[in-house]
Amino acid sequence: MSRPLLISADRSHMHRARPRPAFECIALLLQGGGALGAYQAGVYEALAEADLHPDWVAGISIGAINGALIAGNAPEARVDKLRAFWERVTTKPYCDWSQHLLLAKNDAVRQWLNQMSANLALVSGAPGFFTPRFPAP
Question: Which pTM was predicted?
């Protein structure tokens, strides 16, 4: 018996509809590491497209934030809530001055820009995500 073929509206790849795996429960474990957070949101989106919704969610650090967004929302709202959070967190708070001021595009310039961005986040935080406390505890 063949399975129905589903095509995602916003992607060209295809998914085959499958019944829920014959496991007692599905657990989603999300580790920490800020750079992994947006990746985890994309992985959850793929799981939701495949209709694999976890029964248990656990995470640490950024994984705990993603896990809270997943567990704290209805299944049909989770992907939108994750996307809204990550769009807010990764939006540059200021115009991208580096595009206009620095004409050179090499590794040394990129490394310098990365250091400047990290220092700016250390001093001013990331809007919608965190603000530093002064003085530090």
Answer: 0.65
Helices (H), 19-130: 34-49, 62-71, 78-90, 97-101, 107-124
Reading the block at residue 68, the tokens are: 């809270």
Spatial separation of the C-alpha atoms in residues 23 and 10, rounded to whole Å: 30
Q: Tens digits of per-residue pLDDT, 70-111?
A: 999 999 999 999 999 988 887 765 555 555 555 666 788 778
Contact partners, residue 38, CB within 8 Å, separation at least 6: 86, 90
Q: Residue 63 in contact with residue 31, Cβ under 8 Å?
A: yes
- Cα(4)–Cα(15) distance, integer angstroms: 9
Q: Take residue 56 and report the two structure tokens written for it.
A: 């248990």
* CA nearest to 66, candidates 43, 92, 91: 43
Q: How far apart are the first and last CA of the chain?
A: 63
